[in-house]
Amino acid sequence: MERPILYLAITNHGFGHATRMASVAATIQKLCPEVLLIMVTTAPRWLLECYIEGDFIYRPRAFDLGVVQADSLTMDKAATLEKLLDIKKHQNSLIASEVNFIRQNRVNLILADIPFLASGFANAANIPCWMISNFGWDLIYRDWGGEFLAVADWISDWYSKCDRLFRLPFHEEMQAFNNITDIGLTGGSPHYPLDDLRSLWRITTPVEKTILLTFGGLGLQQIPYHNLKQFPDWQFIVFDASAPDLPNLVKINDRKYRPVDFMPICGRVFSKPGYGTFAEATKLQVPLVTLVREDFAEASYLIEGITNYNQHQIITPADFFEGTWNFLRESPQPPKQSQPIAKDGNEAIAQAVINYFQSN
Prior knowledge:
The chain is α/β, with parallel strands linked by helices. Helices cover about 35% and strands about 15% of the residues.
C-alpha cells in the first residue's frame, strides 16, 4: 500500500484553528504513523510543533482570512471585505495552483478547518474534502449584513460542496453543509509533569489563587494589568511578552509551552470567547472566566456551550477594562447540564480518516 497522504488546510485567522487542527493531526499520526501530514497554514511552524511530535510537511499558504484584526477583540470590517472580494476575484487561480500541488503530491484526502475554497481544491482534484468546525465563516459575515451578505452566500455555496463535516461542540447549525457528523471536544492535552512546571516557573500559590490569562494568538493590547495589585497573594500566568514586570505575574516566554500545559495548576482560565481555549479548559474541567462579544456571531454559541458544560463566569467588557476584577473573589457558576460533554473529538476524526485510508 502506498503511503497515505493527508492535506490539512487551516483558516488564516489567529492561532485557534491551527492548534485545534494540529491536535487532531497529532492524534492521526499517533494512531497511524505512516500517514504523511501536509499542514497548510500561515500559522508559524513552531506552533504546530508544540502539538505534533513527528514529522510533517509545512506549506505556508492562506486561502481565507477570517477577520482582519488589530488584536483579539478589535475588528476591521472594511479591510476584511476588501480582502474577501480579492479572494473571490482570484479564486480560480488560487484553486488551480493548489490543485497542481495536490496532484503532484498524490494527496488522498483533504481535511479543512475551515477555509471554504478547500472544497474547490478537492472537486478539481477529484478527491474528498472533509471539514471540521463549530461554525462557518458564512455565519460571521452574514451577521454583519450589507455587502457581506453576498460574500456569505458565495462561501455557503463552497461549504455545500464539502463531502463531510465533523461538527464540533459549541456549534451553530452550519446549514450550508449536507453531511454532518457531531463529535466530542477536540484540543491538546497537557505535556509536562505539574510539579516540574510549578518548580521551573516558581508558581507557589494554591490552585484556587492561580489564574491563567490567555487571549489567543493575537493577544490583547489593553489588558488592565494594574488590577493585579488587588491580588498580591495570587499568581497570574500570561503568554504576553509585552506584559509589565509585576511580582505576581508569571510570563511564559518559552515557545514549547502552551496554555493547556498550565491549565491543571490553575483555578480558572480567563479568556475571550474562543473554541480552542474553551474546549481545552472544559476537557480538563478548569472553570472559565470570559468576556461577552457582541460583534462576533460565534461567541454566543461558545458562551452557551461553557454555560452548559463548565463552571463559568461571564463578564462584560466594562467589568474587564474598567472594573477591579473583584469577580475573581466570587465562585464560578456551575454548569447547567448534569451530563458531561463528550471529549473524544480528536480520536473520532482520526479514526474516520484512518478508516478512509484503509478502505480506499
